[in-house]
Specification:
Layout: E1 3-7, E2 13-24, E3 27-34, E4 41-48, E5 54-57, H1 61-79
């Protein structure tokens, strides 16, 4: 599983594991989780800047709800539920 490193607002390095990358209505998303005993899952939108570089962006509650549903469906399909 791919590990990604980000920096929080205090400059502290935070490591996440990439759980999934998926597309919903022509928009790409990633599901990341912390590598803690009680992991938290974060879903972010993948965007591309003017130079063609990918970056991650937070999403509003409505978009998050739709992305969570797609991620849960993807996860249940993967484990065979």
């Amino acid at each position: 599983m791919e590990k990604l490193k980000f920096y929080d607002e205090n400059g502290k390095e935070v490591e996440f594991l990439l759980d999934a990358r998926f597309t919903l209505d022509d928009t790409d998303y990633v599901a990341l989780y912390t590598d803690d005993e009680e992991p938290e899952i974060y879903i972010l939108r993948v965007e591309i800047d003017e130079e063609g570089n990918e970056f991650l962006k937070g999403i509003d509650d409505k978009e998050l709800e739709e992305a969570v549903e797609a991620y849960e469906q993807l996860s249940s399909d993967f484990v065979g539920d």
